[in-house]
Each structure stands twice: as structure tokens, then as C-alpha cells.
Amino acid sequence: MGAELVRRGFSIISGNASGADQAWVRGGNDVDPAKVKLCLPWRSFEAQAIHPGNVVAVLDELQSSEKVSYFHLAAKYHPAWDQLMLGARKLHARNAMIVEPAQELVGYVDHSRPGGGGPAWPSGSRTGISGSGRGTCRSRFKNLAQEVEA
Question: Quick one: angle between helices 86-99 and 64-77, nearest 10?
């Protein structure tokens, strides 16, 4: 699917997590690695899966104000933010990096296991970003996409 989207002129923005994220990225890389943007919480995150031609944005390397804005959004929508370790906070802030430039979200959410991209998915047409994917997504971050577009 990632390859077909890139062939049709779309770009892929991914968090580079193992599983579905990297499957989409591999498909996009097969067509044009420059059309694949990876949003990483830290430089070494899943480094073995990064293609040299990918566009890479690293949360830890952003300007302070931009980084703070992503953390603020993640904290606003996570119900137990104060209980998260720094690594988990960075993963959630990275999700805001993925959603911010998106016009469409397409993916797979596996609700049978913890984590995954579910919290970053918007719900409802009010967000201005449409989403499609397998599985239900009752997201704690349902308004995240709407807010970052404002």
C-alpha cells in the first residue's frame, strides 16, 4: 500500500515503529525514499529501518519551542501524562509530529496490544483530517489533529 500511495504522488509520514509503520515505509522506499518522512522520538529509534534517502525529523533535535509544542499537545490529551517515563512521553510527542502535517491518516490500529498509533488518530469529521484504517479507534487524542491545524 505504501508503494502505491507514493506512485500516486502521495508522501508517507511515519513514526518508524516496527510492524505496520515499517511495512508502509518499505513500500514507499521501494518507489521513492525521498517521499518518506520519518518522525523519530530520538535519533537511534529503529535506526536499522531508516533508508538513507528518507527525510528524517527527530524530536530531540527540534528547536526548543517546536519540541515543547509537541509535548504540550501530547500532555493535553494523555490521561496519565504525569505517570509516563520520559521515553513514553517522547513517543507520544512524536505522534503529534506525525499528525501535524497530514491531510489524510491511513493505517492499522491493533487494539489487542498496548501502544501503537491509536492515540494519534483523529475521530469524526470535525478534525479536518480524514482517517481510514482497520480496527476501531476511540482515541484519547481525538482532537489532536484539529488543534495542530488551528
Answer: 100
